[in-house]
Design goal:
Blueprint lengths: L2 H21 L2 H12 L5 E12 L4 E13 L2 E10 L7 E6 L8 E6 L4 E4 L27 E11 L2 E10 L2 H7 L1 E9 L5 E8 L4 E12 L2 E13 L2 E15 L10 H6 L2
Antiparallel strand pairs: 1-2, 1-13, 2-3, 3-4, 4-5, 5-6, 7-8, 8-9, 9-10, 10-11, 11-12, 12-13
Length: 266
């Protein structure tokens, strides 16, 4: 290697290091760390109503029972579909790991096949039970996978919020999530992401909107949210989630969060 080539290599190396350092905004990351650390209780039991709305306005309702529990720094969640008949007894289990080097585990029980199916990483970006939420959306995002940038301060429904852009650091994250980038609106008074836009590899966008939330026992809980998939200005599909009958920090047996329980049901 000549001196000229060596200097060029060193210059490019320094340039890449500088770019990487500048790509992540410390203020934005600090905000997202507070979002991630926000108290959401140690256990939560609740009823869910999932409303699926197609582009013609046709609706399908699904009734779900959901349980969540902290296991140290990890979180386990399980959902049981109660109705209608075509999804009754379907169940979904997630192990959300705090360790960034460990992939989250997800399983789906299909009663028609009487089989528990593990969701592979390659399928994480696909639709969860026909909704606008993907399997990836059903887990918490690892902050170390993203560079964050504070775009501006704004308001959502009269509450001050930060607008923060998240860019995946690797193509692996893009492939797994299905998103090339996302923009989140974080309320300044409670560090809840109340709106977001996910830019998909398919050139579609997914819009999350937390319509209602309340504070219970010092914890902010979501009462209603929507996820809307759009292509350009055209709405392709929409999912509404409504949460009721919440029981926060009540005892839940560890055995609730097993693949055996998926088959057994509630």
């Amino acid at each position: 290697m000549t001196t000229k080539q060596l200097l060029l290599t060193l210059t490019l190396g320094i340039s890449l290091i500088t770019t990487n350092l500048l790509a992540d905004d410390p203020k934005a990351r600090a905000i997202m760390e507070k979002v991630d650390a926000r108290d959401d209780g140690t256990t939560l039991e609740q009823d869910m109503l999932m409303v699926l709305i197609d582009k013609n306005g046709n609706k399908r309702n699904r009734d779900i029972k959901s349980y969540g529990k902290d296991f140290g720094e990890d979180e386990h969640r399980i959902m049981f579909f109660k109705s209608p008949a075509d999804v009754k007894n379907t169940a979904f289990l997630t192990y959300d790991y705090d360790d960034s080097s460990k992939d989250d585990d997800q399983w789906l029980y299909l009663p028609a096949l009487k089989k528990v199916k593990r969701i592979p990483t390659s399928d994480k970006s696909s639709s969860f039970m026909g909704s606008d939420f993907s399997y990836f959306d059903m887990t918490d995002r690892d902050l170390e996978d993203y560079d964050f940038k504070l775009l501006k301060e704004t308001e959502v429904r009269g509450k001050k919020a930060w607008m923060i852009e998240a860019i995946p650091r690797t193509s692996k994250v893009v492939k797994e999530s299905g998103y090339t980038k996302s923009i989140a609106l974080v309320r300044q008074d409670n560090y809840v992401v109340v709106r977001s836009i996910g830019f998909m590899k398919s050139n579609k966008k997914k819009y999350l909107d937390v319509k209602k939330l309340h504070k219970q026992g010092g914890v902010w809980l979501i009462d209603e949210m929507t996820m809307t998939t759009k292509k350009g200005k055209s709405t392709q599909h929409k999912t509404i989630l409504k949460f009721t009958n919440k029981k926060l920090n009540k005892p839940i047996n560890d055995n609730m969060f097993t693949t055996r329980r998926l088959e057994k049901g509630m």
